[in-house]
Amino acid sequence: MIPAIRKQKILNLLQSGEILYTDYLLDTLGVSLSTLRRDLKELEKEKKISHLHGGGVQIVKDNIELKISAKLNLNKEAKETIAKKAASFVNNKDVIFLDPSSTTLPMIPFLKGMDITVVTNGLYHINQLCAEGIPCIMLGGNIKTSTSSCIGHMTESALKEIYFNKAFLGANGFSIKAGITNHDGNEKQIKRIAMEHAQQAYFLLDSSKYGVVTMTKVASLDEVSIITERDIPELKEYAELILG
Question: pTM of the predicted model, to two decimals?
Answer without folding.
Answer: 0.75
